[in-house]
Amino acid sequence: MQVMRSLDPEAVEAFLLVAELQSFTRVAGVMNTTQAAISLRLRRLEDLLGHRLVERTPRRVRLTAAGERFLEPARAYVAAGRRALDVFEQEPTRLAIGVTHHLIGADLPRILRVVSECETSVTLHLRTAGTRTLLDLYDAGELDAIVVLRHDDIRRDGEPLFQESFGWYCSEDFDLPSNLPVPLVLQPEPCNLRAMALRALETADIPWREAFVGTGATAVGAAAEAGIGIALLAQSAAPAGVRQVRGRALPELPKLDVVMISTVTGDSANAVLRRITGAFRSS
Fold it and tell me: What's this model's pTM, rounded to 2 decimal places?
């Protein structure tokens, strides 16, 4: 009797994440392990299948022809495993997460795909807003977990995830005159990043003016991309159509801690939460 070979679900999941993220570093962050462990899982999977699935060079990671062939069956395999595990589950767990809109950028679809490919027993409710709003909703019990920027020492609870860098951004063809006030695109008060921008410019004795005021980081980023003015944005969430300001010395900006505050319990919900925070960490 021939012994049937069996796939390692975690190895297949690592393969799918590598295909999506194209980075062993990012996959290790999402799976809360090391690059060496990811490499080992993939090597064992390749040995089992008898084909090389991933081509890895110092500059890029991509699937081989065999990897492309294995992609859809791998997705079906992981989905079937999830359905088998969910047979005796109760109603899907509701997980309400808030994420500061300053960290929401073009990577959001990738982050949500990472979550959707690993868990079906949790219904995700995602809320984006400013840090103050999210803290109030969390304290009121309306959110189970939040990922926010730590702007001061008033509130020290939470798990540090990473440090976010910030920059001054404008459109590709924007020309910043050297003898005029800096035209800023900002959010209305109260906004911590607005305060950061004005504090930095005033400390450096650089004149400024409001060129655009819009609610939400998406509106501010769009205004900068449209060439209306200069925006202070998180580097990880800056739109693809903007560049960092060159040609005029603007002040350096401090990094801020990104923290997670959570009351989440339960294995499934915690697994989803860890996937989300891991994806943000690796973005």
Answer: 0.65
